[in-house]
Write a structure and sequence with these properties.
about 70 residues, mainly beta, three-stranded antiparallel sheet, two-stranded antiparallel ribbon, about 0% helix, flat, binds FE2/S2 (inorganic) cluster
Length: about 70
């Protein structure tokens, strides 16, 4: 893992009802013990369990949202 490219700003951000965003280089270990390295400026890690490209988010969480009561 590299140093935070923007010191003072978080390099891990949890999106409400969505993915965890990683800023900069990271290695992510999935549930099978396989490591996935990312060197992208920002990577999205699935937290909903619905992605077909785990550990990365593919946007499926948007379809899993509960309908609003508005
Ligand atoms: S958080 Fe986006 S697909 Fe799971």
């Amino acid at each position: 893992m590299s140093e935070n490219p923007e010191p003072g700003r978080p390099d891990v951000i949890f999106c409400p009802n969505g993915p965890m965003l990683l800023r900069g280089d990271h290695a992510v270990r999935d549930e099978d013990g396989d490591d996935h390295r990312t060197t992208r400026p920002v990577s999205a890690v699935c937290r909903c369990g619905g992605s077909k490209i785990k550990p990365w988010c593919d946007g499926t969480h948007k379809a899993m949202r509960k309908p609003s009561r508005d």
